[in-house]
Write a structure and sequence with these properties.
Layout lengths: L10 E4 L5 H11 L5 E4 L1 H17 L3 E8 L3 H11 L6 E5 L2 H10 L5 E5 L7 H6 L6 H15 L3 E3 L2 H11 L4 E4 L18 H6 L4 E4 L1 H4 L4 H12 L1
Parallel strand pairs: 1-2, 1-8, 2-3, 3-4, 4-5, 5-6, 6-7, 7-8
Helix pairs in contact: 3-4, 4-6, 6-7
Length: 230
């Protein structure tokens, strides 16, 4: 499991907010309790990509959760463009052709994370989408493919993390959404775990959104999560 010098880097705060002003206000409230922020579709399409560059310029780490999946040339060009933004992580869907294209396009400082199966999916959802494998087997297959291609890390649920670690070995990152502090509601995540359990399962970074963004004191929640993982 790759080590990180700053324990705060293990927590990635999901900026799942409607606009840049709300995101900047939250970042100010959290202060130095967090160093790593995720920008997904909602904020990304509302000025969040420019925000990511500003955060990187301030020395903060950014995770662009864009889940790229397109023809190879388009993915490669997109990843090459993201590599210039200062982002630390970028997600792509874990289809072999897409992963190979992303690997070709990445710059030296950008790490590519392959999304195995969305954490809102269970076996019934996978079957409805046309997959012939249960979620656990689909995750394992995609993890093995990602490791063979050379992808830097995997995004998977905490429930699959131990199995993924056995497949990909100690040197690749495992990043996990669907993390909920003890007592928090699961929301739309169907496969969840607490931060302490996630760390024990060999997970490198946890992504936490609503338990922080919806908290009366987001700084205190962030500090508690970092402490639990340490």
């Amino acid at each position: 499991m790759p080590e990180t010098a700053d324990p705060r880097d293990r927590l990635i705060v999901a900026l799942d907010l409607p606009g840049v002003p709300e995101a900047e206000a939250l970042i100010d409230r959290i202060g130095d309790a967090a160093t790593f922020y995720k920008i997904g579709y909602q904020l990304g399409y509302a000025g969040g990509l420019a925000l990511a560059e500003r955060l990187a310029a301030r020395g903060l780490k950014t995770f662009l959760d864009l889940k790229l999946h397109d023809i190879g040339n388009t993915v490669e060009a997109g990843v090459r463009a993201v590599s210039k933004s200062g982002a630390t992580f970028l997600t792509v869907h874990a289809y072999p052709q897409t992963m190979r294209a992303a690997f070709r396009g990445r710059g030296a400082d950008l790490k590519i994370l392959a999304v195995t199966v969305l954490t809102s999916y269970d076996d019934a959802d996978a079957a409805e989408a046309g997959y012939g494998l249960p979620v656990a087997e689909l995750v394992a297959k995609r993890a093995a493919q990602a490791a063979e291609i050379g992808i830097d890390g995997l995004v998977c649920s905490a429930a699959e993390a131990a199995a993924v670690r056995r497949i990909v070995g100690p040197d690749r990152l495992i990043v996990t959404p669907g993390i909920r502090p003890a007592g928090a509601e699961a929301g739309d995540q169907k496969r969840v775990m607490t931060p302490g359990e996630a760390r024990q399962a060999g997970i490198d970074h946890v992504v936490v959104g609503r338990p922080i963004t919806g908290a009366a004191d987001p700084r205190a929640v962030a500090q508690a999560i970092v402490a639990e993982m340490a």
